[in-house]
Description:
Blueprint: H1 3-6, H2 14-28, H3 30-36, H4 50-70, H5 79-100, H6 114-124, H7 130-159, H8 166-179, H9 190-194, H10 203-232, H11 240-252, H12 258-283, H13 289-299, E1 302-304, H14 306-324, E2 338-342, E3 352-354, E4 364-368, E5 375-377, H15 382-388, H16 393-402, H17 418-434, H18 441-466, H19 484-493, H20 499-511, H21 518-537, H22 543-551, H23 558-567
Parallel strand pairs: 2-4
Antiparallel strand pairs: 1-5, 3-4
Helix pairs in contact: 2-3, 2-4, 4-5, 5-11, 6-7, 7-10, 8-10, 12-13, 12-18, 15-17, 17-21, 18-19, 18-21, 19-20, 21-23
Amino acid sequence: MSDSLHSDSASRLPRQVADAYVDDLIAINPVIGTYLGVAASSGSLPDYSPAGRAAVADLARATLARLDAAERLPGADCDAERRCGRLLRERLTAELAVYEADEDLRTVSNIHSPAHEVREVFTLTPAETEEDWAAIAQRLRAVPEAFAGYRESLTLGLERGLYAGPRATATFVGQLTTWAGQDTDGDRDFFGDFVAAAPEARRSELDKAAAGATAAVVELRDWMRDVYAPAVEGRPDTVGRERYARWSRYFNGTDLDLDEAYAYGWAEFHRLLAEMKAEAAKILPGAGPWEALKHLDEHGTHIEGVEEVQAWLQGIMDEAIENLDGTHFELAERVKKVESMIAPAGGAAAPYYTNPSEDFSRPGRTWLPTMGQTRFAVYDLVSTWYHEGVPGHHLQLAQWTHVADRLSRYQASVGMVSANVEGWALYAERLMDELGYLRDAEQRLGYLDCQMMRAARVIVDIGMHLGLHIPADSPFHPGERWTVELAQEFFGLHSGRPADFIESELTRYLSMPGQAIGYKLGERAWLLGRDNARAAHGDSFDLKAWHMAALSQGSLGLDDLVDELSKL
């Protein structure tokens, strides 16, 4: 641990304790350092072994003890200190609950695992100078040890009878095959392709380091295929109520009433279905929503070409910034920069966003997985880029970074609650609809399809993991108990997304239980907070001022979020 955490620790207020925690966490997990833009982190990777995970848990326990002392100090009850302390306590408690249940010994997923973390961090590691590439070579040489530590954790999980799901395992094996450049598409291995842009002077060193990293990918893939997959064969993909509740707390920052949330998902399903039918009739009279979407897949507006869609998505974000700044937001210059990127092959099908570095030298970026496509339907992208980019993830997370000195480093980065962030992004989609930016039935049906996907996530994620019954008023298998097969069928019937996307989504829900429900439940929290604030202020309510205050308070769990938003 850093000397800074221990020196004069008795006089530290909650925000200082939180920021000292970030410093010590970066020392344990340099991937976090890279996300934050810490140059010294570029040459190393975390220890994913049981010993490495224990070190993170020990740090969390020590920090909670220091927080206890900090919250008794004069000044700890002011809003800034109270809000930070509340977040730090909630987050570390939720993380320790996951750790103490040994969940990290069975972390296998198509989107969230130590292996995915290692791969993604290279796309964010600085690669401009020879010194940058020297650090990259060092980080590449650390890949075999990082993967060995991850495998050690999974091995211990098998010994303790803690298994990941077979579906996620099979998907992960396929992803590793793609990363190794050994699938049928003929793409180059990820690490070899990554170093192709390196300066010639370091070519030999980097090619050798990349080859070693790729060999580690192959070794992990072979072990997952030949040892792990047979061990988990026949095991359930779902996790049950107890594990689901633990993960739901982790992702949502509160102990949800899961049965109430399930009922809310169905209420939203019925509301959105009625709206979708109305929009579909404008596109293809007499057709249902998904028939209309299939018509748009063939005959709707499209962007041709990968480079062309990348530029078009950049234009969506640039236009939103230009139009919203000064009217509904007040944006700092450095917050206005965001880049549209194409995601590397071999990941999940869903688009995603990566934060700017703390000094904004690396801007926020949106990432589109093309999944081999070169023709892209507009209806499927407009609302999604309001979600991923502006005014969604980018405005919130870049604003947190911008005001980190007024919050704490922890609140602006490491302390992120998934449902807070995803709820804001879904609220941002709805805001753009409220403001009239979805300019025709094609774009609005696409928006409603995105909303329906998030409602369906609540239904199937809770339903299949808890084994709940399908309500009697459902148009789909009323009265039956959810299974993974029914969940996939339901999703396919009530989504305009292609089959490979739906397959990827279901695998994601199975391997990240409780995360996918945070979009719709988070949006509900943001809307409730806005409604409460509007009611309190009456005609004097200023939406722009509320947006900026809301985006400048850092992360909070859902209960705390509603409370704080309502006071703004």
